[in-house]
Hints:
The chain has 382 residues and is of the alpha/beta class. It has two domains: 3-291, Alpha-Beta Barrel (TIM Barrel), CATH 3.20.20; 313-379, no CATH class. It is 40% helix and 13% strand. An eight-stranded parallel β-barrel has the order 3-4-5-6-7-8-9-10, surrounded by six helices. The protein binds iron/sulfur cluster (2 copies). Residues 298-304, 313-314, 317, 361-362, 364, 366, 368 line the site of one iron/sulfur cluster. Residues 307-309, 311, 313, 352-358, 368-369, 372 line the site of one iron/sulfur cluster.
Amino acid sequence: xxxxxxPRIKEELSILGFGCMRLPTRNKEVGxxxxxxxxxxxxxAIDNGxxxxxxxxxxxxxxxxxxxxxxxxxxxxKVQLATKLPSWxxxxxxxxxxxxxxxxxxxxxxxxxFYLLHALSSSRWENLLKFDVMxxxxxARAAGxxxxxxxxxxxxxxxxxxxxxxxPWDMCQIQFNFLDEYYQAGTEGLKYARGKDIGVxxxxxxxxxxxSIPVPEDCAATARAAGYAKPTLTxxxxxxxxxxxxxxxxxSGMSAPDQMDQNVESAAKGVCDALTPKELxxxxxxxxxxASRVRVSCTACAYCMPCPKGVEIPQCFRNLNDAALSEKxxxxxxxxxxxxxxxxxxxxxxxxxxxxxxxxxxPQHIPIRxxxxxxxxxFETN
Length: 382
Ligand code: SF4
Ligand code: SF4
């Protein structure tokens, strides 16, 4: 494992962080974590040198933090623990203490190392300021309940700069991958934060798995020329993030033990400025291909879930994007109709009644209702 140092952080952190948002589950249920498998993965990650664990209140329908608390028994002092204040649930000052205290209890710890204001946007930031949130954070730090004051972000670059300038943050967490260089904070935000000595943690390095596809046929020749022998673009996508010296670490939400093994292997080569010109050409070829084909910029974060009508929104978009990228529409239609069949719990796009509840939660601002109609047209009509 390789480690990097962020300006205001005492500890060296592993460049690969263990994200607890997409843990293995049972029966496709986001709230049913397969705890034995997930705990084994966390143990193996720590054995391989991972020392940063990231969770949050909404992950796995509220089950992620209690799971992390159980899984870290006896391991707590080996890792830095990050979790987040659910900024959208703060309606009065007391809510701030309520969430932090409950998080400490569920995580079975007396302190959280990295405490982030979660998924800030302009309106959420303005709302938190009404409740003196930075005063609350500083008092929590003085009381020893949290150590580093941080935020995670999903909005435009101007809002990002405004929030960065508002406080001497210890760290910020941004979405960054080779498809999102110019989206939300992007490369400009990455450099802006580091220019102010604020450490940067990267989330969605593979855009929710969008980048983790088999090397597309259109890129095969470029991949061969680059000596890229991996079956998928995952390794390239991760090393592209680490190629940036400004990145402290990236979070990977691993859903199966083999994904963790692959990520650990990639992390051994995650040096900055290490991609060769030929590999950068491969990145460009892949970007051009994605740009011309991807239909929905969904990161599969599941913030939009659960849908009151049971629509499996991330899976719908996954099938749509996979079909568009691979151009194998019939195969994806079969996959979609199998995965979301009634006997497997349903969840097809046609169940949407257009209530719009999901769209208010989506950090990517996707017009979910419109895009679900594309899914219906692609997979549910003859
Ligand atoms: S708009 Fe459709 S997909 Fe979204 S929450 Fe409502 S029913 Fe579910
Ligand atoms: S539609 Fe939006 S909220 Fe739902 S999984 Fe995709 S990116 Fe996340």
